[in-house]
Design goal:
Shape: globular
Number of helices: 4
Oligomer: single chain
Helix content: 40-55%
Distance between the termini: 19 Å
């Protein structure tokens, strides 16, 4: 996916969606990528987060280092709508 879609979106594309102050968030482009992968593969939020932590293909698609710990399935521990359709 990254080979075909690299550059389709970048963090700057989402700048208006995020506050300018506060703690740094996760990369919006990486979150968009994992949402697309989640939808295409029919994964739950928890399964998608686990794939980011454990699967080399997800890490590659998201341009992450192999030792990147990934992220929790629900940032901030708050419920949120699923990325799945």
């Amino acid at each position: 996916m990254r080979d075909r879609l690299d550059g389709l979106w970048c963090d700057e594309d989402f700048v208006d969606w995020y506050p300018r102050d506060g703690r740094p968030g996760l990369s919006p482009a990486q979150l968009a990528t994992v949402c697309v992968l989640q939808f295409v593969l029919g994964l739950s939020d928890r399964q998608a987060a686990e794939a980011v932590r454990c699967r080399i293909d997800f890490k590659y698609a998201m341009a992450m280092e192999l030792d990147d710990p990934g992220f929790h399935h629900s940032p901030d521990g708050l419920p949120r709508p699923s990325c799945r359709g």
